[in-house]
Amino acid sequence: MKLTSMDISATASASSIVFEALRKAIIQGQLEEGEPLRQDEIARLFNTSRIPVREAISRLEEQGLVKTWRYKGAYVAQLSPKETEEIFNLRALLEPEIIRNAVPRMTPAQLQEARKKCAAFSSSPDPMEWGDLNRDFHETLYSASDLTFFKEIAHNAIDRVERQIRAQLVMSNGMDRADREHTEIIDACEAGDANLAADLTRRHIEGAKAFLLEHLTEA
Description:
The chain is mostly helical. The chain has helices at about 5-25, 40-45, 50-60, 80-100, 110-125, 125-140, 150-170, 175-190, 195-219, and strands at about 35, 65-70, 75. The chain is globular and about 55 Å long.
């Protein structure tokens, strides 16, 4: 039986829905590291066939969020301390350059929106919101950059360590420190100091990395 264009479109739509739902569940920790992703169960949950589920899992594997083992199926990827360090090192290379490129291009409206995101993060009493608000703040600043490929890689890298970032914000003084550093970064952006914004962003990422590696080593 040949698939029609409507069949292909419907499959692609279902695949995207499953992909986004699984991706969100993984990065927010609702699906834990090492947890199996059973295609039949997921297909029943989303009232779809296994084809879009398989496509969604393949996309998640491309982003490093899922590992597939022969004869065993797909599992939520587990990050070792070494892998976590590598991802943060990559972020520390890419994101400072993204914001350095973005600062001269930032409009007053974008700066105002970033300031609002900074304030929302600072004032939120709900730890479950901190991860999303933290990401919103950074991506608002990066939106002015025209380094499209850099932003895509950084976006995927953040996905890989989103669970760890959320944990880091909740533990110890992670939230207070992030709030202070966010304020310093937005101040540098508003002053038009691209080099300072880049340096602060790099230190912000490296500080989070050091805290997480210490915690993972203890664990």
